[in-house]
Amino acid sequence: MAKRKPIPTNESRIPTMADVARIAGVSTSTVSRALAGLPPIPEETRQRIAQAAKEAGYAVNRHARSLRLKRSKVILVLIPNLANPNFPDLLIHIDRAAYDCGYDIMIAHTAIDPGRSDRYVDELLAGSIDGVLLTASYCPPRLLECIAAGRHLPIVRTLSPTPDLTGITAVQIDEVKAAYDVVDHLAKQGYKRIAHLGGPPKEIMAIARRKGWEKALADHGLSASPDLYIQSGFTMIEGQRAADEIRSRSELPDAIFCSNDESAYGLIAALKGHGLRIPQDIAVAGFDDLSFSAVMDPPLTTVRLPRRDMAERSIQKLKALIEDDADNDNTILAHELIIRASSLRS
Amino acid sequence: MAKRKPIPTNESRIPTMADVARIAGVSTSTVSRALAGLPPIPEETRQRIAQAAKEAGYAVNRHARSLRLKRSKVILVLIPNLANPNFPDLLIHIDRAAYDCGYDIMIAHTAIDPGRSDRYVDELLAGSIDGVLLTASYCPPRLLECIAAGRHLPIVRTLSPTPDLTGITAVQIDEVKAAYDVVDHLAKQGYKRIAHLGGPPKEIMAIARRKGWEKALADHGLSASPDLYIQSGFTMIEGQRAADEIRSRSELPDAIFCSNDESAYGLIAALKGHGLRIPQDIAVAGFDDLSFSAVMDPPLTTVRLPRRDMAERSIQKLKALIEDDADNDNTILAHELIIRASSLRS
DNA sequence: TAGGTTTACGCAATCGATTGCGTAAAGATG
DNA sequence: CATCTTTACGCAATCGATTGCGTAAACCTA
């Protein structure tokens, strides 16, 4: 129990392994091995060390460990827009899945300042974080450089479709098919003038959903005439604005497929404000199945994303990439069409 | 430019300061000082080092730095329930404010496993993270022990009212007063039977809002009779359930103050489903002012939380606590009553 | 009991950035 | 020109945990 090295005894020092070692009368090597449960430590010693650790109020220093192991057990999640419930809803599952794998998550919101994400790519390159989960199609320029340079990094993308860049593993649904299913459903209900509220024109997700709409219309012998396409965005405000534009058109559509639930919320609110009934006057469908969609008036027909699966598979892939470089092909998960009153012929 | 130390040249090593130093022909001390912009480095050398850093693709290793400085520039945000938009909406501003101060944020969702938060208190105690922001009234047991032991830790609580424990700085609104304002508004509209949809009975936030309701009723000479209190929760589902219970009561209330917007959403959806009109048959008000509340049908009267202020002040306080131990008294911020159609006498 | 094996542990290097202290070289002053 | 500053940098210790290697001591076997 004699002191080996002079350990300073300031009142409020953070306890280190050396403190535990001193209390237990062993070396730090032994403490480390005992706490990690490694082989040649007899039960009796292990107990004593555990007791000493508790007594000292010891907890490992994450940075010392990460520095030594060159692995931090931290992954970064880049989120484009937390205001869209889609992201927190996914984040719940990401958080859970990561926790179950022993990873902590750092988040960075890229809505205001997309350039911010470049800094985190540097963190990845510097070995400060183990992996990055992109929950949107936006890809930091610095990352593109690395991919172009043929570097192989632990990065997974999810929730949005793959743009035509390879080199980043993706976990996603078939967005075109999902949009197709919604429009197909509307067409089968007998709607003829099926409009589409398009998302941001350059957003890959929006492009895919539009493509699904066009495809389904074509397959049903309906036309995707320009007056049936309304340029909008992914927010409620833009959905509201779109309602005004629709009313200004010569002929109203009889159904509208919105590129996401949020714009559908805004659209429906505005249409109702103008005295139109949903679905009697105009049927509406969305995309995402946010939790509110089930209880709104009327309940909204939409596409349910397999958020939990997406999160779990993404984390699983990321873990694989971090730990052994394998498992880097894309995954397509099944979506589900949720049919509710907003799209049903009365 | 001669090599000083044998630096291994594996193809894909992560560049370190030593690499930069070698390229620039200086020592790591100089690199460190140059990159940090510290005094005695002439511009010419600084340039050369910056160039070398870029050439090497260098970025500092967060863990090495944190270990040395005993400061990580990471704060942890504990979030009870990401499914309630209140939290992501606050998180947006927390993320932003933290970023502006040079902090990164880690998040931990405590909905499923509250015991999880204890681990993060250990991280704080071990010096692995710099501070903790609690966005709910739940307080990890381990933390209570520390406070009881008189330890002074960088922790700030926000978004929920303070329970009767001192020792943790809080940034919040006057929940009782805010609830009072809502009910006061309803009473001034002429409503007489003003019911309250209470949140989880042991939740401090729910208790405060109930208290505000009772106080306002008393001040208006109205009674808070037991049949006007409906036990519910903070979710849409529970709001829906509450609607059924209300209809089973002998006499309907003419106004209902819900303990949050989400339960109001569920309640309104269910009441409308039963053919009741809002506000003609029953007025409804909520609490939180989630973004959806402005566009729903009818738009919901509610209390707007100063989320941005809360986030900024919280981070500011946390920063102060981390950096110099000062600024540890509570802050009460102003709320705002948002009056919309759901509570207006027609 | 000599020689061999196993068990239980310690020593010291290592991870990468930071920084107090020291010191040549350049410049300033008398 | 001798002495004193100032400038510009390098050396080496440090932060705390991990781990390869080494080694006493205990245990076994012939």
Automatic annotation (TrEMBL), chains A, B:
It comes from the Bacteria. The keyword Transcription regulation applies. InterPro entries: HTH_LacI, LacI/GalR-like_sensor, Lambda_DNA-bd_dom_sf, Peripla_BP_I. The keyword DNA-binding applies. GO terms for molecular function: DNA-binding transcription factor activity; transcription cis-regulatory region binding. Residues 15-69 form the HTH lacI-type domain. Keywords: DNA-binding, Transcription, Transcription regulation. Pfam families: LacI, Peripla_BP_3. This is Transcriptional regulator, LacI family. It comes from Rhizobium hainanense. The lineage of its organism: Bacteria, Pseudomonadati, Pseudomonadota, Alphaproteobacteria, Hyphomicrobiales.
